Amino acid sequence: MGEEIDAVHFSADDFANYQQHLQQENQLLADWFANGQLSSYGPRAGFELEVWLVDKSANPTPLNDSFLKRLDNHLISPELSRFNIELNGEPEDLKGHALSRLQVSLEKSWQHCTDVAASFNASLIMIGILPSVTDEQLVLKNMSNMKRYYALNKQVLAQRKGKPLKLDIVGRDHLTTQHYDVMLESATTSFQLHWQIPIKQSVRAYNASILASAATVAVSANSPFLFGKDLWDETRIPLFEQAVEVGGFNDAAFGPTKRVSFGSDYAKQSLMLVYQENIEHYPVLLPANYQDEASQLKHVRLHNGTIWRWNRPLIGFDEKTNQPHVRIEHRVIPAGPTIVDGIANAAFYYGLANYLAQLASPPEHEIPFSTAKDNFYTAAKSSLQANIKWLDGYTGKMKKLLQTQLLSNAEKGLQQMDIAANDIDYYLNIIRQRVDNEQHGANWQRNYLKKHACSMQQLTAAYAEQQNTAEPVHAWSL
Hints:
The chain is an alpha+beta fold. It has helices at about 10-35, 65-70, 100-120, 145-160, 200-220, 235-245, 270-280, 300-305, 340-360, 370-380, 400-415, 420-435, 440-450, 455-465; strands at about 45-55, 75-80, 85-90, 90-95, 125, 165-170, 175-180, 190-195, 225, 230, 260, 310, 310-315, 325-330, 385-390, 395.
């Protein structure tokens, strides 16, 4: 969750002080990696689900502050815009019926949020990009009331030397616009999966998550429209990258190093190299004044939280032992279309990534990082029809690769973690049917709009009606 900070405006001394603490904590973290002081517990699963608040006309409604006060739940927090909230799941050991337990937990939280939203004559929608949101609504007056977000906006613009953020996305249509704030980013809502792993497995798990990203974004695509334009199958990807387009130090601010990206390479000997890259290539954005012990790594963790790789290593602390652990945050999956679809996406990710991480011959040695990156962006644009390069010389459509290899790989990966057989069958069968009939959220939205020639508000309302049935998206009617 985005932790609040104590200020919006910062001095040169604030940056210097923060940098000093950051270097100290980074050295401490390096020692933990070198000395094996990070947790060997895992695997565990967790999630963050970002959702929209909408009114009776299916338009976004800016009331998250009042909503959250009435809700009063520490696991649910504001997102960048007043239209959005984030639901956080309690972690589960990845074994037995972990997946169905995650579903039950999320359904309980969702129902509570739905009840509170109804008291405001509003409702919730989980979707990558809300079709009915307009460019004119993504303005600073609709930013959530948190210093963290106002400070982030100020610092991003400072890094850009006052240049506006320009959106230029070429998909089925072509969209261009520009903003003098970071509010475009709030149009992207995700189902971010967390995978805590034993430290000895962390490098392989991170690289496997990178490799799996093309497949997970392909099966889960749910963001075809933005501001009335039909763009990528998962338009969240270019939107987020361009909405916070800030690079590295000084002259590199507009160079190839980006704060939202697929990353620069696989991990090699240790994930510590990612944290070292954070310091070497990215200036501090939010020099918060923390008084905590260095062992809490507050400065390292906040700095890492302002660098949005699509697969991001995180340092956390076990709630019982307070021992530091490593987990992977897999950020590529959009929210929705339903809770069961989300858990099915999680099952596919955990299974496929674990399978790849357990292979005797590391697949990252066969698939160059540049190919994994190309696969990802191609899949974000064309999902199941993307042309993919894979292991053993495979070149062809993502749909065929899923049907002939990746779904069975995911099944084996879940079996390796001792996930209950009926959970494996249930959730992966949802993905299988979605792939076979090519009806993920993005294709349903496009097909509904084509059939009914309706407005974006009507499309959003129809999507919400289907979502409320709790039927997985592959079974939705038009």
